[in-house]
Each structure stands twice: as structure tokens, then as C-alpha cells.
Write a structure and sequence with these properties.
Bound molecules: ligand BES, manganese (II) ion
Helix content: 25-40%
Strand content: 15-25%
Radius of gyration: 23 Å
Mean pLDDT: 97
Order of helices and strands: HHEEEEEHEHEEEHHHHEEHEEHEHEEH
């Protein structure tokens, strides 16, 4: 794979310009207004795979957004790597907090600023370009398949059905995903754990209509106040979640592994400074790194009700709502936690309100066993291009399809992402480093080589 640096150097501008074109398509999966753009993005993805040299490039419609698949089978006796990624992006709002328009990429200080630059278009495109480079140099060492979906940011609701129905087509030995982070550009790392997710919505109903807060206030429960009480009772003063049974399936991480984890470079002062907070907060007895990786959480993502418009309106609202999510760790199960939450929320509801609980999407946590052989190939690839051994890390985000891939296809995933936590994914001013983009294109072919050699 020694050609790769030269290939990148020779094609530098084109490799970037092509990505910038993809970043101009607002493929926001959550908002129906962008449905045509999401479809256009799937077309562009498919076209890029075709041009790179893939066969059987297909766009499969689903009940939601389309799934793009492709493959290059060079020899059925050789191993097969399935590359997964997502071409959909999070909504860009609040748009006024962006310093440049989210779908008009600009390069500033060595970074590409655009929605999806890091999560996940920039990282998916590294796979396409690494594949192109190997094709152009007659160096593809094994079979490759691609599955690139358009619904990851909304819970991958239709991907499960698709992989169930296409087991044979997606058959592979290992799955390769770049949709996670490294610790720093000079501290490479490989993700060996992801948290799961349970996402709920609650409705709290008080009086049968909005009331004048002077005429009725003080004599009837305010559902927003009540919802706030209920929420705050769900985490105690030590940062423990009070939902009964919530911790029952949480695996204890051994002291030895925690000691190993504590060696991961992490600067608390820098962390606080970056976020503009004077103090951190979380579960008692755990470090910040542990709180975002090996421990579960409960967070309100949004809360609303009553009057939130201009000026003021005196009202005692009839209803209050919240979206509440929980990040899960092994061996918690998404459905079980959703049921526990629902029972708990109904149980703590005072008699003066009625509550409704809805389940949104969820996903299971993941751990990649340290003795999984393909992990060695990815570590070797990173060491080759970064000049340093990567550190195994567990990350706090979720990629629900990873657990499903293992269940349905029987294949484990290598989570070799190149983003940084400071890339503002899901936030205004999302960025992706040019260094990271090119480093990904450089590193991935080495994974293919080392992985093929060990089989
Ligand atoms: N790429 C992220 C997940 C991620 C980010 C993992 C950083 C590790 C480090 C993914 O696109 C994402 O945002 N996932 C959602 C899952 C959800 C919408 C079901 C998440 O984690 O909130
Ligand atoms: Mn992602
Ligand atoms: Mn995301």
C-alpha cells in the first residue's frame, strides 16, 4: 500500500472537491422537507461508488430513506470487508449560530466546516476514496462490500429489516465503520465500546384546558412544575438514576480495566475550558471519562409546554412534555430499560396529573473484545500511518446498527473513526480536519492489507 501517500498527494484537490460537493447536499433525514435532497444524496453516493470501481451498485428504497449497496468481489476465497456508514446528517439548526452556512462548506484553519463534514459524510467518503485508490493501483487485497444508509441519525428504523432480508448479499467476515473519534491528531485510538440508547417521550396532563394563572393558580397542579419535579427525582444527589432496576444488568468494569482506562490522556481543565463550565458533574465515584463511557445516563433532550413566545402570557398550562433519553452500557437492554422507565414514570406520577409515555427508537450497547483478531489489523494500520500505537477507548455515543449486524450477520465491527470530540458533531459549526480526512484515506488501505494477511 506504499502507493497511497503518493496517490493522495497527486489527487489532493480532487479528493477534497468531491467531498465538498457532497456536503452541499442537505441530506437531513429527520425533516421531511429534505426528502428529495436525501434521495439526491443517495444517488450521489451510488455514483461515487460506481466511479470508484464498485460493481452491483444499488439504491434500495425503504419505508424511509434509501439504502445504497455496492461490492467488489475479487476472489470468493478471500475475506470480505463490509464498509458501513451513513450519508444522512443531523438538522443544522440553530442555523444562526453557524459562522458560515451549514451546507456551503468552507475551509478555515485546516478544517472543513459543514454539517456532515465529520458525521458522517467525510468519514464515509474516506472509505470510497481508499477503495478507489486500491482499485486504481491494482492493490485491492480482498473483497469489499458497502452499505451506506440514510436513516442513522433517526434511529436506522428500516435498516434492520433490510439486513434481515439481504443476509446473503451482505455476508462478510468483518464490518468496518468510520463514524467515531480519535483522542487527538497525535494520539490515535480505536473505539472498542459504544453505549446503547433508549429514547422516550412523556406527556403530563393537568387540568383539561389552559387556565388563567391568577384565577386558578395555587389551587390546581401545574403540569410543567410537576414534570420538573418528576424529572429531578429521577437522579439522586450522587448522580444515580432512581428508576427501579435500572442498574440490574450493568456489568461492573474490573478495577484492572479501570486502571488501564485511567491512562487515557484526558485533561479535565481543558475539558472544562472548552465547554465553558466552571465545574463538571456526574455520578459519584467515577471520572469524567468513565461517566461518558462505562456508565449509563439519563438526560432530558427537550422540554416544552405553556407559553414560550414573545413577551409574557399568564397561563397555567394543561400539558407538559419532555423527550428523555438514556445511554446504556453492557448488558443493559434497550427494551427492558424502556419498560422500566415507563413503569417508574407512571408510578411516581402524583394523583393530580395523568401521564402518557411513548417509546422512540433505541439500540444496544457494544463492546469489541480485546482479543478480536481484526482489532490487531486496525491497530497495526494506525500505527503504520500515525507512527504510534493506538489506545483502545470506549466512547459514549451510539451506533445502534452495530449490535444488530452482529446478531443478524454474525459479524463484528471494527470502529476505526478519525473525528475529534471537538468537531461539533450535531452542533453548530461542525467541522472535520483536512488532516483527519486524508489520514483516513491513508490508513484504511493498510487495514485491508493487514486484515487480508492475517486470514
Ligand atoms: N457517529 C455518531 C455516533 C458517535 C459519535 C459514536 C461519536 C462515537 C463517537 C452517530 O451518528 C450518532 O449520532 N448516533 C446517535 C444514535 C441515534 C440517533 C440512534 C447518537 O449517538 O445519538
Ligand atoms: Mn454518525
Ligand atoms: Mn450522528
Amino acid at each position: 500500500m506504499d502507493f497511497i501517500n503518493n496517490y493522495i498527494e497527486t489527487n489532493k484537490d480532487r479528493l477534497l472537491d468531491e467531498l465538498l460537493d457532497l456536503l452541499r447536499i442537505p441530506s437531513v433525514s429527520a425533516d421531511p422537507k429534505y426528502k428529495a435532497d436525501v434521495a439526491r444524496m443517495a444517488e450521489a453516493m451510488a455514483e461515487s461508488l460506481r466511479k470508484a470501481g464498485a460493481d452491483n451498485v444499488e439504491i434500495s428504497p425503504t419505508a424511509g430513506h434509501p439504502i445504497v449497496t455496492a461490492e467488489k468481489i475479487i476472489d470468493p476465497a478471500k475475506p470480505t470487508v463490509l464498509c458501513y456508514g451513513h450519508y444522512d446528517v443531523q438538522p443544522a439548526d440553530p442555523v444562526d449560530l453557524w459562522t458560515s452556512p451549514p451546507f456551503e462548506p468552507v475551509i478555515k484553519d485546516g478544517n472543513i466546516y459543514a454539517r456532515g463534514s465529520c458525521d458522517d459524510k467525510g468519514q464515509v467518503y474516506m472509505h470510497v476514496k481508499a477503495f478507489e485508490a486500491m482499485m486504481q493501483n491494482n492493490a485491492l487485497p480482498c473483497n469489499v462490500k458497502f452499505i451506506i444508509e440514510g436513516e442513522e441519525e433517526v434511529g436506522s428504523a428500516n435498516l434492520g429489516t433490510f439486513i434481515e432480508a439481504n443476509k446473503e448479499k451482505l455476508k462478510c467476515d468483518v464490518i468496518l465503520i468510520s463514524d467515531t473519534s480519535i483522542i487527538a491528531n497525535d494520539v490515535p485510538s480505536i473505539t472498542v465500546g459504544l453505549r446503547g440508547l433508549t429514547y422516550m417521550e412523556v406527556e403530563v396532563v393537568g387540568p383539561n384546558r389552559d387556565l388563567h394563572s391568577g384565577v386558578y393558580g395555587g389551587a390546581v397542579a401545574n403540569p410543567i412544575n410537576t414534570l420538573c419535579d418528576m424529572i429531578s427525582s429521577m437522579i439522586d444527589k450522587d448522580g444515580h438514576i432512581t428508576v427501579e432496576g435500572f442498574y440490574d444488568d450493568v456489568l461492573t468494569v474490573s478495577d484492572e480495566e479501570r486502571k488501564e482506562m485511567a491512562k487515557t490522556p484526558f485533561d479535565l481543565a481543558e475539558f472544562k475550558k472548552d465547554l465553558g463550565v466552571d465545574e463538571v458533574k456526574g455520578e459519584k465515584g467515577y471520572s469524567s471519562l468513565e461517566r461518558t463511557s462505562i456508565r449509563p445516563t439519563l438526560d432530558v433532550n427537550g422540554i416544552w409546554g405553556g407559553y414560550t413566545g414573545e413577551g409574557s402570557k399568564t397561563v397555567l398550562p394543561s400539558k407538559a412534555y419532555a423527550k428523555i433519553s438514556m445511554r446504556l452500557v453492557p448488558d443493559q437492554e434497550s427494551h427492558k430499560i424502556a419498560d422500566l422507565f415507563e413503569n417508574h414514570f407512571k408510578k411516581i406520577a402524583p394523583p393530580y396529573v395523568k401521564v402518557k409515555v411513548t417509546h422512540h427508537h433505541g439500540g444496544e450497547p457494544v463492546v469489541v473484545p480485546m482479543d478480536f483478531p481484526a482489532l490487531q489489523a486496525s491497530a497495526k494500520a494506525m500505527e503504520k500511518t500515525f507512527g504510534k500505537k493506538p489506545i483502545p477507548t470506549r466512547e459514549g455515543g451510539s451506533i445502534p446498527i452495530v449490535a444488530l449486524f452482529e446478531k443478524v450477520l454474525g459479524a463484528k465491527s471494527i470502529l476505526m473513526g478519525f473525528g475529534l470530540n471537538s468537531d461539533n458533531i450535531h452542533s453548530p459549526n461542525e467541522k472535520y480536519g483536512l488532516f483527519n480526512y486524508y489520514k483516513g484515506i491513508e490508513t484504511l488501505p493498510w487495514f485491508f492489507k493487514y486484515y487480508t494477511e492475517m486470514n
